Amino acid sequence: MDSEIGLRVDGTPRRLTVDTRTTLLDALRERLGVTSPKKGCDHGQCGACTVLVDGRRVLSCLTLAVARDGAEVVTAEGLAPDGELHPVQRAFIDRDAFQCGYCTPGQVVSAVGMLDELDRGWPSAATGTGEPELDDAEIAERMSGNLCRCAAYANIVPAVREAGR
């Protein structure tokens, strides 16, 4: 069964008709041509498909597009709408926080989302009972849903820390 939905993707309103079983990831990549979210595992285990939906991190491979009708979706492409890199994107480049680059868009979007969560004072398992602090343990915990097969974590964590300053 098909359903018509509307999304605002990287600042642009989009309307499309999708099968009700279509994931947000497939709608973005296959129907709208937005290829920065990657299809890694297609099971919500790697984080390569991470996007921001209404400001919150979401694994787009586990989210049905029809469930996000009317939502604001931001991908890695949408973080730099006028060619001006987002501070997280700049930090990833400055810190050489990628190797093959396949996971990088999901890592970057996840870092943007986690820094917002941190700014809001949302606790994590690493926070304990105090105020969240942007240290290596906090970054590792909050970014744990984003895997890098190349193991670029030694540069990803400092990049996130730098962007969070």
From TrEMBL:
InterPro entries: 2Fe-2S-bd, 2Fe-2S-bd_dom_sf, 2Fe-2S_ferredoxin-like_sf, 2Fe-2S_ferredoxin-type, 2Fe2S_fd_BS, Aldehyde_Oxdr_Iron-Sulfur, Beta-grasp_dom_sf. The keyword Iron applies. Keywords: Iron, Metal-binding, Oxidoreductase. Residues 3-79 form the 2Fe-2S ferredoxin-type domain. It comes from Actinophytocola gossypii. The keyword Iron applies. This is 2Fe-2S iron-sulfur cluster binding domain-containing protein. Pfam families: Fer2, Fer2_2. It comes from the Bacteria.
